[in-house]
Amino acid sequence: MPSLTQSNIGGPPPIDPLLPPGGSGDGGGGSPNDGSTRAASMTAIAVVMCASVMTFGAFLSAMAIRRGLNNDWHKLPLPKILWYNTVALLLSSVLLDLARRKLRQNKRHLFNPLWTAGTVLGTLFLVGQFIAWDQLAGHGFYLAGNPSSAFFFVFTWAHAAHVVGALLAVYYVEFLGLKYELGTRGRTWVAASTLFWHFLDILWLGILALFVYWA
Amino acid sequence: MKTSLTHHRTVARLYFWLSLGSVLLGLLLSLVMRFHLVYPATSVKLFHLLWPRQAQGGVMTPELYLSLLTLHGTVMVFFVLTLAPVNAFGNLMLPRQLGAEHMAFPRLNLLSFWVSLASFFLLLASVMTEDGGPLSGWTAYPPLSALGAITGPGEGLGQTLWFFSIAVFCIGALLSSINVIATVIDVRSPDMPLMKMPLAAWNWFLTAILSLLSFPVLLAAGLLILLDRLAGTSFFIPTGLLIADFKSTHTGGTPLLWQHLFWFFGHPEVYIAILPGMGIVSTVISAFSGRRIFGRRAMIFATMSIALLGLLVWGHHMFTSGLNPWSAITFSILTMAIGAPSAVKTFNWLATLWLARGNLRLTTPMLFALGFVSIFVTGGLSGLFLGQPNLDAYFHDTYFVVAHFHIIMGIAALFGIFAGTFYWFPLLFGKMLNETLGKVHFYLTFILAYATFLPMHFAGFAGNPRRYADFTSFEFLSPLMPLQKAITHSAFALAAVQLIFLFNLAWTLWRGAPAPENPWSLEPATASDPDNGETY
Ligand code: HEM
Ligand SMILES: [Cu+2]
Q1: For residue B475, is it within any domain?
Q2: Which of helix, strand or coil describes residue B1?
Q3: Inter-chain touch A36–B239, beta carbons under 8 Å
Q4: How many domains is chain B built from?
Q5: CATH of span A31-213
Q6: Smallest Cβ distance to B187: which of A40, A62, A72?
């Protein structure tokens, strides 16, 4: 291994060989000198997903303990709209991923419509969640009271907080896409936000299964 | 040199100052506490000026003591031991050690500092509420911490702000661990395989992984307890709780749940505090013994197993909380198992020193590194006592515990920080701290730290409980008063000695000449040492 010396320490950072070219005529690239290479961004997303898994794992173990502890646990009737929300979320994931693939296949013209449709559906999911909470509250299920409903709100709020964060990224990509500025950096955003969006699907399916079958 | 705020060295400096301010605050608080413990009825004008309501006539209320205790513990654990080792020194050195120009995400790096600073201000706000600061210590056990103002002054808004502060801190810690992990994985020079990475970088990397796995759990617990406090849920509050004539309407929760979640974070947290110090110590020992650390590979694997086991032993904080005896035994065995990799590390440091014998250079950073090894062994030994459920049944919540964690977590980690400060000061501020002052500071600190914290073990043997504001009203503690007074005097001396360091710091920054190119003038032979070749 060529040992690092005083003189080469100040040198430029290693450039990620997998860095995709700007392509498709979009401007707005980022030089690797702004630090966030694509590989690093994907690692960052993986780290964030790890952190989310730990947070939800903590909620889950709290729920397991709290449920076994007392006989005040009453199963929560789930609002029907949750199923429509689920479809919206999964579909948005498919559309965002299609958009990402088309971009990679240099079918740049297909990106904007697909991504926009995905964005709209993603937003609808969030709106749908608000309606679900509202319906639950309308039937007298609040945070306080039945522990099952308390955990439902905890899980779905935490999930929604993730969705809000992810939507900000998705909107940002939408914005770049509409301005035709999906350069290297924009494409990193595309890859990172779709990956995270898929993660939110899995998280959501897990939460739904939890409350359908167990709580 | 670009002087942008996002430069990794600038961020390192910001964290350095935040931690320095925090450690001074924590130190002053500890002096007030130590004074009150042994002279509880003495009236002090200053106390009256500082806390007109809670120290009327200059005599502190027990609640004031507890709120100072809470602030002291929180500031020390979070803002000193969590931030300085990895965020100050890791930020400074990691890119250099990995042959990179900067951290993976420079702006995120600065953002995590702002988030930590916001958390610090929230913490300060928590003690400035009308009725004082929260009382429930840095562990904030429910049910008392979950019920709100009826459990005491400062337990209302103050405790709520405290939980918000911790939640925000968790986010800052996560942001910084994203950066460290991505930097190690993706920004590392392609010429450097993982196993060739400097030991300090390994330690920062593993620390970041521990942060990543533990802070989210604290965040989740903090959010749940905030809901208990603010939204009427009962995650941690059992049915039918009666406190000071107040019957709680919460039903069905359990305080044990908090203990599990908290310590699932809390034990890894002590390794988050100490692992970077171990990395710094390895760096410094290899630099001033002029050779590679003995058994480098073993060091890396030992650190990995410490980190892994550290995630599995949280139950040793709960031996007296009513664990199933089988799980207590499991936690106990796993806890003892950490002794093995810790011994490997200690042995390798000692072997390095032994092999270098005549070539050792006792510079200030080296002295602090040697002090670290000594303190680490001392504190580790008392851990072997506390790790056994039968012994812990007696020692739990006595001064034995206070002695143990101050030595292993407080002093050892601080020695790591001091070693890093002296060794890397030329890189941090371009100047060189005075060596003579540094050595005087080290010897006095070393002696006085032992003098302050070693006798606390004896108070623990005698059953002296911790988190009591006043020992004078207990018959059985009266024979310990001379010991406690000696501890207090030693603590004041220990604090006074730190003025030498502060003077050294201020003078060097103000008047010091720029550091030479190669401030520790290492022999060229060490240039091939993976732990040091790249640092100077
Ligand atoms: C001159 C140095 C120090 C002195 C004299 C000192 C003194 C004290 C005292 C008197 C207590 C209260 C014990 C009780 O009433 O139960 C305490 C608690 C504590 N100290 Fe220190 N301390 C010092 C440095 C540190 C450092 C460097 C740390 C960093 C780990 C630290 C962390 C803590 C913690 C975590 C607690 C427990 C707080 C709680 O019970 O919630 N201290 N210290
Ligand atoms: Cu522990």
Answers
A1: yes
A2: coil
A3: no
A4: 1
A5: 1.20.120.80
A6: A40
The pTM assigned to this predicted structure is 0.92
Contact B126, B162 (CB under 8 A): yes
Q: pLDDT confidence of B522, banded at 50, 70, 90?
A: low
pLDDT value of residue B525: 42
How many CB atoms lie under 10 A from the CB of residue B498?
A: 16
Q: Cβ neighbours of residue A140 under 8 Å, at least 6 residues apart?
A: none
> What tokens does B194 get?
């993982």
Q: Which residue of A has its CA nearest to B192?
A: A1
* Record: contact B252-A13, CB cut-off 8 A: no
pLDDT on residue A49:
97
Tell me if B279 sits within 8 A of B97, measured CB to CB.
Answer: no
In a domain, B82, yes or no: yes
- Tally the residues of chain A: 215
- Whole-number Å distance between alpha carbons of B78 and B82: 5
Copy the structure tokens of residue B255: 């305080």
- In this prediction, residue B523 has a pLDDT band, given cuts at 50, 70 and 90, of low
Q: Does residue B493 line the site of ligand 1, with CB under 6 A?
A: no
Q: Residues of A with CB below 8 A from B196's CB?
A: 1
Which ligand 1 atom sits nearest the alpha carbon of residue B409? 30
Task: Tell me the average pLDDT across A186-195.
Answer: 94
Nearest to A50 by CA among B211, B421, B490, B194: B211
What are the pLDDT digits (tens) for B170-220?
999 999 999 999 999 999 988 889 998 999 999 999 999 999 999 999 999
Q: Domain spans of chain A?
A: 31-213
Tokens standing for A122? Answer: 């993603």
CATH number of the structural domain spanning residue B111:
1.20.210.10
Here the tokens at position A26 are 């979009």
Structure tokens at B385: 């006592």
Report the C-alpha gap between B120 and A94 in whole angstroms: 42
Range of the domain at B137: 8-511
